[in-house]
Design brief:
Blueprint: E1 4-5, H1 16-27, H2 38-58, E2 65-68, H3 71-83, E3 90-94, H4 99-110, E4 114-118, H5 128-134, E5 139-143, H6 157-166, E6 170-174, H7 186-189, E7 193-197, E8 208-212, H8 238-276, E9 280-282, E10 293-298, H9 303-312, E11 315-316, H10 332-336, H11 341-344, E12 347-351, H12 358-378
Parallel strand pairs: 1-11, 3-4, 3-5, 5-6, 6-7
Antiparallel strand pairs: 2-8, 7-8, 9-10, 10-12
Length: 386
């Protein structure tokens, strides 16, 4: 069966060029980057090349990047590392953070730290004024994601970072959904810590990075050898890191053209569905969002039912975060926007990427129209608004 992929926010297919770099690092460059013989030094060279490539994508110095296992580790490293050694530190997060941040914050609360969760508007945007009001004398860290994984909203990170710094707090942002999809310069953003993941930008799973500003020293989560300049113990995943570096290089060279093309396809898909399927609304901001994401509420339809119906037609979409799939409760992101539970459960995320085409989009519009019409005939709650 044919398969068209519209779930790029969950993960991305590995680019062919990245896969080849990964293969070479597995076979020809298999040495330990800490070894002093020629195979070890070849691995070390690949590791440092990748570090420079990722740094070029986000505008930082090579000494400010710590490689790890992915976005979740990077988020945990930022939150736990920033408050290590502090007694009852105060942390501010937003209501629509990824579970990697919210669960880490919950664990820190269990350990005696104080957590404030700032709300978002009906468009999914954090008001910097709410962050200002939440600041306390013991605020150690503010963590607000750059781009939301479910609705694509872009947060005003620069303003929030200024507020955090005026209070003497560090600023962390989960940039997993931003890097490779929009221009990112950590210097301009003003962040102290910034999380990234390779598999969201055509790289392999199991590798990511944390930007750590040179004036900041979060405590390591892992203890062992002096890898990553003593900031992350454990033999580096050089094949994965090398592949992430090449993925970053591709993203940097293709970013402008990809953004414009994918935004056009996203708008084509969104407007096509709105024109052809009644009682559909867009969740979140339609302006302050990343170019590849739309989240739509289909009145009278369970989002998961529509996801399954589209899957049977060969289209991969999502009813929410991949990390929360199978959850009984509706999306915490959509609830934070003020949506009633039923409308939140009636929503579907479409996230596009480099492999999508106008032809695929047009076929998806037709498939959505057919599936929605069929599911609404079966729905005991849907009443058409004539």
């Amino acid at each position: 069966m044919r398969s068209f992929y519209f779930d790029y926010n969950a993960t991305t297919p590995v680019a062919k060029e990245v896969l080849e770099v990964f293969r070479q690092a597995l076979t020809d460059g298999f040495g330990n980057a800490s070894s002093i013989h020629h195979l070890g030094q070849a691995a070390k060279q690949g590791l440092e090349t990748a570090r420079r490539q990722v740094c070029a994508l986000i505008g930082c110095n090579a000494k400010e990047l710590v490689f790890g296992s992915g976005g979740t580790e990077a988020d945990n490293h930022a939150l736990f590392g920033a408050v290590a050694g502090k007694d009852k530190a105060h942390i501010i997060v937003s209501a629509i953070e990824h579970p990697a941040v919210l669960a880490a914050a919950s664990e820190l609360k269990r350990r005696g730290h104080e957590i404030s969760i700032v709300p978002v508007s009906s468009e999914g945007l954090v008001d910097p004024g709410d962050v200002q009001q939440a600041i306390r004398s013991n605020t150690a860290l503010v963590s607000v994601m750059h781009v939301n994984n479910e609705i694509g909203t872009i947060q005003p990170i620069e303003e929030i970072a200024e507020i955090a710094h005026r209070a003497g707090a560090l600023m962390h942002s989960d940039g997993v959904q931003a890097v490779g999809r929009m221009p990112v310069n950590v210097g301009d953003l003003g962040v102290d810590l910034y999380s990234m993941s390779a598999h969201k930008m055509r790289g392999p799973k199991g590798v990511g990075a944390l930007f750590v500003r040179k004036t900041v020293s979060p405590e390591s989560l892992l203890f062992g050898g002096r890898h990553e300049a003593g900031r992350r113990a454990g033999t580096e995943n050089t094949p994965g890191i090398t592949a992430m570096g090449h993925a970053a290089h591709l993203a940097r060279t293709q970013l402008t053209s990809d953004m414009e093309r994918i935004a056009s396809l996203r708008d084509r898909l969104e407007q096509g569905i709105l024109d052809r399927v009644p009682d559909v609304t867009v969740n979140g901001s339609r302006s302050a969002r990343v170019s590849n994401t739309t989240n739509l509420c289909f009145e009278g339809i369970e989002g998961e039912s529509l996801v399954i119906a589209l899957d049977l037609k060969g289209f991969c979409v999502s009813s929410g975060s991949a990390c929360s799939s199978g959850a009984v409760e509706p999306s915490h992101v959509l609830l934070a926007l003020g949506l009633p539970k039923q409308r939140a459960k009636s929503s579907v995320r479409f996230s596009l990427g480099y492999g999508n085409s106008a032809e695929q989009v047009d076929e998806l519009i037709v498939a959505v129209e057919e599936a929605a019409t069929h599911l609404r005939r079966l729905s005991p709650t849907y009443i058409a608004h004539v």
